Amino acid sequence: MKHWLLGGLALVVAGPACADVGLLERIVGGFSRDSLWKNVQERCLVPATPTHADCVIVDRAQGFVLYKDMIGASHYLVIPDQAVAGVDDPRVWNDSQRNAWAFGWQARDIVGKAVGHSLPDTLLGLAINARASRSQDQLHIHLDCISARAHEFLVNSDIGTQWRDLKFDGKPVRAMLVPAEQPALSVNPFALVRQDVGGDMGDRGVFVTYVKPAGGAAGFVVIDAPADKASGGNGHASDFLDRGCKLGRALAAGQ
């Protein structure tokens, strides 16, 4: 029964061509809420010179690691080089010196390399989930292609330079545009959300991407996705991303 379950999970997660029961065995059998942090420490931070393939970038000066996630060929994680639980940690919102979002955005070309061809900035995004929606108690910002649903949402939503209440997949979110003619992320989305919300930030998911509409202002869209049972919000900002990078792969097929 266990092997049947693991095989089924492998097919669902990775697809028939990439089913790896051994991988799922390790996920199911060895899962814990600190396993990500342990792996990053052992593979990327403890060795004097990291050699593990998952340690894509280790930048001790900036204090971040770009780490290859185990699921999704184009999925990467931006992780601090010290123990930080997640968005509920006050250091996340009070640190004016380090910008994990800017670090991840600067490394965005890695997604195109994983897919096999360069991708436009408008198909890439970063997301962090709220405390109630995460599986690991080490802060990690997801980097990958945006989903088709996210692309449709961005195209059809009226997003301006002030926070606006919207719905994504029926769930309440708030969105604002930070104008930027060039795709250089100079603001910290954590700071933008905190300035407007204040209070306990552990119940906020955050998503960031770049837009360049033909008839509108280019810039970074910041999405605040609250975890709020009363309103139906789940704080799962990574729903804006697609581990299969379908839009990016379809772009290659059409070239």
From TrEMBL:
Which biological process terms from the Gene Ontology are attached to this UniProt entry? CDP-diacylglycerol catabolic process; phospholipid biosynthetic process
Which compartment or compartments is the protein found in?
Cell membrane
Catalysis: reaction(s): a CDP-1,2-diacyl-sn-glycerol + H2O = a 1,2-diacyl-sn-glycero-3-phosphate + CMP + 2 H(+)
A Gene Ontology cellular component where this protein is annotated is:
plasma membrane
Origin superkingdom: Bacteria
Record EC number: 3.6.1.26
Gene3D superfamilies to which the protein is assigned, alphabetical: HIT family - CDH-like
Q: What is its main location?
A: membrane
The way this protein sits in the membrane is described as: Single-pass membrane protein
Q: What class of enzyme is it?
A: hydrolase
Protein name according to UniProt:
CDP-diacylglycerol pyrophosphatase
> What organism is this sequence from?
Cupriavidus pauculus
Organism lineage = Bacteria, Pseudomonadati, Pseudomonadota, Betaproteobacteria, Burkholderiales
